[in-house]
Amino acid sequence: MTGAFQRLSGWGRYPVQECRVFRPERCADVRPPVLAREGRTLIPRGLGRSYGDAAINGGGDVLDYSRMNRMRAFDAESGVLECEAGVSLADILDVFVPRGFFPPVMPGTKFVTLGGAIANDVHGKNHHRDGSFSQFVEQITLLTPSGEVVTCSPEEQPDVFWATAGGVGLTGVILEAKIRLKRIETAYCWVDYLRTKNIDDTLAAFAESDRNYEYSVAWVDCLAKGDSLGRSVLMRGNFAARADAPPGCRDPLQPKPKHGKPVPFDFPGFVLNSFSIGVFNQIFYALHPSRERQWVDYDSYFCPLDSIHHWNRMYGRRGFCQYQVTFPIEEAGGLTKLMERVSQSGCASFLAVLKRLGPGGPGLLSYPSEGYTISFDIPMRNDVVPLLREFDQRVLEHNGRLYCAKDAVALPETFAAMYPRLDEFRTIAGRLDPDGAFSSSLARRLGIVRPPAGGSAHE
Amino acid sequence: MNDLDARTPVPEPHAQMAAWGKGAVVIGATSAIARATAIELARQGYAVLLAARDMDENERIATDLRVRTGSPAVALPFDALDFPSHPAFVRTCIEHLGGALEGVVVCFGALEPQNELQADFTRARRILDVNFTAVVSVLEAFAPHFEQRRGGFIAAISSVAGDRGRQSNYHYGAAKAGLSVYLQGLRNRMFHAGVSVTTIKPGFVDSKMTFGLPGLVMLTHPETAGKAAATAIKKRKNVAYVPWFWRYIMLIIIHVPEFVFKRLKL
Fold it and tell me: Domains of chain A: which residue ranges?
């Protein structure tokens, strides 16, 4: 199988770099590009929904695993699904929602692969209650950079498992995995909307309501200033029980299929400006008064943006950064300061998304940790890189951390300070990959892997 | 990767197969379009026999289909270029499904760089054989079953490349053109037995065959193409362009006068 040279980026379309891409469709085609390195490094990639440079490898190789998507076995008793890592959460939803099962953790988009969900240890609206994706992974079959097939789990080779969960692809190719799906009785959530006046109000509402809701998230109007800073709409929900299904729906596990609308082309840069975004935010806030028990089908609740294919084109050709960070509970002041700074800089985009996370897991590079996580879309401009690095410093001062799946600009010293277990990770990754065969643009930029001794870095 | 394949034993659903009521055969099952077509057929309630040369992959696809749809699926070995084996293959299919064998979809095909085919007739001939002769061989072996049964469907994946010869892939295009005409004739013959014959003509599909080729536009995902193919079969269409707009693109292309067309670099 030959590779194809392509200009690749993450979902934020910044940065864009030339990579040689291999896209196996059968098992026999996975191993050769992993083993025949010829001095180039390799990184696995799923559906390319990481925003920054986690799944690109400028000047190196990329293994697009999205076509390796066969399901292997399903046990309806335990809900354990075994499949190749290229299976997407969208596939899992299509197949298993009608049978009464749901992914244990749903990130903001269903267009991610199982491998990507594990490698970024993604979290969802239920993190405060259930933790991150890796909590539900029973086993990983890993093709290590040296060509061994290793199975690992929290019991078997746990060090490899917890380096791979959240390890942004640097420990090898996740070939297959077993995950535990959760049972649902209907495909609908009932959602309570709560409009809050400012940030304190919002955080208090999280503290108050997270006990009673399986899922919670807030959309923050990040252009609001002063006393209104942090005003939000909280969306808190639970899956509806069968007896509680919306009236008039024939099969509560089969909501009406929706057809996504694409954004057909890149919007010119002037379409999104502080005025148009401000108007959007006003309208969004006005449209969501506090209401109780709205029926929402799972797609609209969990993945609202998935119904607009290629929504990243709204930010035009230059792309955007998604800036997501977490602050510990006791550092909520840092969150407020960051929001003030973002608001003042005028760089921010539509809405910010805020959520209170529960305790972190054992993944060495896993992002989720107890506290408040907030994310902003920031359209790319000339001054964005230094601006985000300045934000990073503020986050660091408040013991916060950034998220590899989103980041495109941070510096290595920032990352090392935010991830105290980085050295442990390097030791395990170094054991699995003694020649430094696996690397990505992100891994080099953040210094997660050191450039191979004597060899030259790509960029 | 064989260490992986041997790991998961799956109960063989042969017994289920015969009792299923309706079944279909998908040949060349390891292509992405074939797999998507097979999944759609299984969702329409067919038991599916999957035929391919690479049995490791074929078993994986059969397992996937069973997990996804709950319909029985069995993997069978099939070698397109081993023409004498085709009648026995057809008998095996009939043994599995009997009178329930309602349809066959031929999805195998091959594409190689045109300059290499020009330099090596052995390889050029292989392209002609895989894309044309082998399809004729296997469908002729199936035809009597459907004639006797008086009903069902036959479908094969041809290509828009068969609508007009171009310098960039005329061996492949010629074989697909031959296939399209063969299917026209077969359709005429089978009509009298109440059997539909559907010619599927995909445009550019983002498949293993085309991955990395320059100059391809409006690529279709193989899943989309497979779903469209299954819909066309269900509707008993004669010729289906996949996606539909390729009908109009090809309409324009076949109407460019030859004295102009021969000057183009296509």
Answer: 4-65+422-445, 71-183, 188-410
Mutate to test the interface with B, among A6, A21, A25, A31 (most CBs of B within 10 A): A25
Least Cα separation, residue B7 to chain A (angstroms):
10
Among partner residues B3, B32, B63, which is closest to A25 by beta-carbon distance? B32
Q: Which CATH architecture has domain A71-183?
A: 2-Layer Sandwich (3.30)
Give the DSSP letter string of A9-72: E-TT--SEEEEEEE--SSGGGTHHHHH--TT--EEEESSS--SSSTT--TTSEEEE-TT---EE
Residue B243, preceding bond cis, omega within 30 degrees?
yes
Which residue is associated with the tokens 């923050």? Answer: A220
Residue B107 has phi, psi (to 5 degrees) of -120, -5
What are the boundaries of each domain within chain B? 20-261
ipTM score over 0.85, yes or no? yes
Chunked into runs of 10 residues, chain A (459 residues) has average pLDDT values of 91 96 96 91 97 96 98 97 98 96 96 98 97 98 96 98 98 98 95 92 92 93 84 92 82 73 64 66 73 84 83 86 96 94 80 93 96 93 93 96 96 96 96 95 93 47
The fold of B20-261 is Rossmann fold (3.40.50)
Contact status of A310 with chain B (Cβ, < 8 Å): no
| 3-class SS of residue A119 | helix
Residue A29 CA to residue A32 CA, distance in Å, equals: 6
Interchain CB contact of A35 with B (< 8 Å)? no
Q: Which residues contact A118 (CB under 8 A, 6 or more apart)?
A: A85, A133, A134, A137, A140, A164, A165, A174, A177
Least Cα separation, residue B108 to chain A (angstroms): 15
Q: What is the pLDDT of residues A357-368, one digit of tens each?
A: 999 999 999 999
Candidates A2, A8, A18, A26, partner chain B, best to mutate (most B CBs within 10 A): A26
Q: What is the pTM of this model?
A: 0.93
B1 and A28 within 8 Å at the Cβ level: the answer is yes
- Say which CATH architecture domain A188-410 belongs to: 2-Layer Sandwich (3.30)
Long-range contacts of B177-186 (CB under 8 A, 24+ apart): B178/B132, B179/B131, B179/B132, B179/B135, B179/B136, B180/B239, B182/B132, B182/B135, B182/B136, B182/B139, B183/B156, B183/B158, B186/B139, B186/B143, B186/B154
**pLDDT single digits (tens) A101-117:** 999 999 999 999 999 99
